[in-house]
Amino acid sequence: MKLRPSEGNARWWQLALLVALLVGWQLASRNQQFAFFLGEPVQVAGRIWSWFMPFAIPPNPLFPEGLAGNADIYLHLGTTLLETVLAFVIGTVLGLACGLWLALAPTASLVFDPYIKAANSMPRVILAPIFALWFGLGIWSKVALAVTLVFFIVFFNVYQGVREVSPVVLANARMLGANQRQLLRTVYLPSATSWVFSSLHTSVGLAFVGAVVGEYLGSARGVGYLILQAEGTFDVNTVFAGIVVLTAFALLLDAIVGVLEKRLMKWQPRSGETEKI
Amino acid sequence: MAAHALELIDIRCTFRAKDDHGQRYTAVADTTLRIAGGEFVSVVGPTGCGKSTLLNVGAGLLEPSSGSVRVFGQPLSGINTRAGYMFQSEALMPWRSALDNVRVGLQYRGVPDGQAREQAEAWLARVGLAGFGDRYPHQLSGGMRKRTALAQVLALDPDIILMDEPFSALDIQTRQLMENEVLDLWAAKKKAVLFITHDLDEAIAMSDRVVVLSAGPATHPIGEFEIDLPRPRDVAEVRVQPRFVELHTQIWNVLRDEVLKGYAQQLKGAR
Lengths: 277, 271
Known about the structure:
The structure holds two protein chains of two kinds. By secondary structure, chain A is mainly α.
């Protein structure tokens, strides 16, 4: 068997690298000072266990104090995911509506242009305190923050998508007798949707970022809140555990989007795909 | 005499350059073209002479700078709803399957879904694509996409069919096949056809009448030829008839100078 990394055994090499990193980390954290700043992989794993599992583990050599089975992360995780999904849906719908409107109304787009540019270049995370003031410390201030992130991604993609509808397809639809409403439904919207989907991975990621950052800046629950609490008590292991959980769920969301994309965009040619007739 | 199916009267189209409003380009000038009901008219001309401009005027997609368009005697305003337009480039909606593409025009006109589906399937079958209805345009070959586009146009049963070099992107075999199919369908329905092409052979083989346009700018008709070849024709076989060769020589004599002029102008423009 060949041991050099190749397409076939890439998965094993990826795993090996992960194990090597974890072992290196664990060894480095035997030093007390290191462990204070970097945490310990085993402790991080233990933390994640007590977050998710309802069973306690009795004291053993790895965990001299044993592990509590709190299963207490679900409320926080649920909150964060709820914020993400809400922000994603609201941001996408708003972006789609505004993008379609401005792309189809040249006068409006002419007037609004500098404002949109300004709103887009503003570092929007800075809005978090204002949203906290407006919407309180509940989920809506986080949703609002994440919406501002998602909105612009979707908005610009839809705007572009409508602008770049093939003029021939458009002329053809008009010749076939489409009125304005039918044009919107059968030409502009599907064309814009394909652009929205190409940005979906980014916008789901940003919805998640918005939710977590919002929680981190002030909240009563959520994974960002857990991380903030742990940081306050110098509990590095919990911070890392929070990061691991967030990463895992970001990957999961991305995978869901990938499946959806494949389902809905099957009309798009993929490079290298050959069809047998 | 009954009104013509499509009349373009004294058409002039002047375009202004987008970045420089002082610069104007007259694509078409003083062009009058009449097509009787059921007549198959081809327009040939050198490349870039404004053939498509003329067709867009007839379709109502482009408003002429001056002149008028009449459809069955009525002045045209907006889109020409009695015409079907087959475009030169890809005009199918890539996000709709072949069947949905053929059906979309019927849906626009408010035909009930089930009925629209039935008609669309029948049209797909008629252009030889039965069983390909669920494929997306990118899964079809160039010829199949053209057939779908043809079915899309014909499904609406237009009284006038406008075709803009519809087969120029096809290989010669597929092309002759499709030309014959179009002739068969036309013979069955007898619609007025305005067919734009740069291929003289194609024009003579298919038409009742061939109109030759001058090189641009300010394109205008410089010759008209009745094609008195017997029908039904086979586009491959008709080419060897002596009368075909005779007509070809006649028309080519008029067209050749324009082609050379157009070519010289393109060279000058490129420099």
